[in-house]
Amino acid sequence: MADFSETGAGGSGGFVPKARFVTPDDFLNYTGKDLRYELRDTGGAVDDTKAERFLYRAETRLMSFVDHASFRNYQWDELAYHPDDFQAMKRAVLEQALYMFRNGDLSSDSGYDPQRGPIATRPDLVSREISNFAIDILKERGLFNQVMVNHLRYNKTWL
Fold first, then answer.
1. Does residue 7 form part of some domain?
2. Cα 52 vs. chain centroid, distance in angstroms?
């Protein structure tokens, strides 16, 4: 599922996952915020891989949510053949990334605080981990559908 690219940036080495639909430059153009600068180390060093990883996490979280919550088997790789759908997915991922940037990654939150104990239930966290704007964008293009029909969104014979 991931597109892993070799990198040595920031001394991290190894492989860095790359988002399929967006880049750090797309996020900058959409929001005016440069993730490479915003996610830099405390010492001020800029690491491009942090921005790539952040966008990959936002993208896979959104795709996983849609795959789980809808009844269709979406072929995400086929969106490249459908420019309007590709652009909708790109905007949805950017909205999800902005949501996660502002609110944190709620999908990894336990809802428990060591000093106060339980502060949020799992269903409460799940209901807040995906941007409503991202879902609205996908719904407009038919990329998030909860109709109970399980068929491929893009069948290769249709292309």
1. no
2. 11
Q: What are phi and psi of 46, to 5 degrees?
A: -90, 130
Residues 30-35, mean pLDDT to the nearest whole number = 94
pLDDT above 90 covers a percentage of the chain that reads 33
Locate 83 and state its tokens. Answer: 């420019």
pLDDT of 56 over the 80 cut: yes
Q: How many structural domains comprise the chain?
A: 1
Query: Which amino acid is residue 103, in one-letter code?
Result: N
Look at residue 32 and tell me if it is in a domain.
yes
**Residue 111, domain member (yes or no):** yes
CA atoms within 13 A on the CB side of 27: 29
HEC sequence for 72-126 = CECCHHHHHHCHHHHHHHHHHHHHHHHHHHHHCCHHHCCCEECCCEECCCHHHHH
Task: Return the CA Rg of the chain.
Answer: 17
Q: What is the mean pLDDT of residues 61-83?
A: 82
pTM, 2 dp: 0.75
- What whole-number distance in Å separates Cα of residue 89 and Cα of residue 101? 18
CA dihedral over 16, 21, 22, 23, signed as positive or negative: positive
The parent domain of residue 141 ranges over 12-158
